[in-house]
Amino acid sequence: MSNEKIPFLDLVTVHQELEEELVAILRTALSTAGFIGGPMVQGFEQDFAKFCESRCSVGVGSGTDALRFALIAAGTRSGDIVLTVPNTFIATTEAISQAGGRPDFVDIDEQTYTMDPAKLRQYLEDRCTWDSKGGRAVHKGTGHPVTALVPVHLYGQMADMDAILDLANQYNLKVIEDACQAQGAEYFSQKENRWRKAGSMGHAAAFSFYPGKNLGACGEAGAITTDDEQLAQTCRLLRDHGQSKKYFHDVEGYNGRLDAIQAGFLRVKLRHLKTWNEQRREAAERYNKLFAGAEAEVTLPHQPEWSRSVYHLYVVRVAERALLQKRLDEAGIGTGIHYPIALHLTKAYEGLGYHVGDFPVAEKAALEILSLPMFPGLTISQQERVVSEVLKSLALVNSNGLR
Questions:
Q1: Which residues of the chain have pLDDT under 50?
Q2: Are residues 73 and 162 in the same domain?
Q3: What pLDDT is recorded for position 403?
Q4: What's the CA gap between 326 and 334, in Å, rounded?
């Protein structure tokens, strides 16, 4: 078996394959000086809205911008509690805070790593009282209203949206999907008896096009999707200093525009996304087969019947992660950890007053999860070597009595 280095993510090959198309976008921008806004941004927004099966899409500068603007446009006000999960990138909670909200957490499902609807119900029933006059839940400890939810579609898989939306409707909560890792992921809604795309089920959704995403820009970029035209229009104002037209500011906004060149790149790459996502699914299925019989050593990703994941990441769980990651690195195999510490335990959120043990499922997962190489073009031979090295390393750990 080859000793070639296997990267965690290959961002070179795909851009080499698309080089002429991407360079043509750059030439167009240079020849027209169309760098901000204009036809390339509008064209991508139209294409991406159609892809997500949403009425509107608003291109912005990053996934963080997308979530921040969506929350503000959905009505988040100073002090409002916005619920999310502890195992996500800090941009999720940064956006909540920057929109004026106060992030709070609901633990995750043991198998999917997404928001556990049972824990969400428990939070709303046990930690809140119902303000019938205001028509909203109020947190017993702080007295702040709970006004919104941000379920995170993690690792390419959507959260259990039917159950989450039922609770949101019951408690009058706005739902903003964090779909930054889920471009093209699908969820089968039993209520509607059909498959729904990520970004089409909440009041709005936020997407990131950071280069490593399934649909990645060649720099920073993001987008909001929604069926609410008024919410979309508010996001358009927010991204451009609140301008309804040049120098006429309807609100105080931000500099969060999507560069035209990045929009052009994304529009080219969007045409390939379905194929790339299928390649990721095929690679995930190969991993599953290669690991067959080793379930006692490695916990594989779980995909419920209601999910069509796009495998932004292929995440396994092992007890001795640090040793395994070290041995894989020595063997020339790239890995990642998404994420090594649950957010409620980070220094940034000490002020929320949480402690070890408050969200045990997320905390345990943070100690055991390991992301293996996953990207379009990952070969069978590369995967065979990854799995072989994983199983060899785990066997060595066991034989040394470390577990």
A1: 403
A2: yes
A3: 46
A4: 10
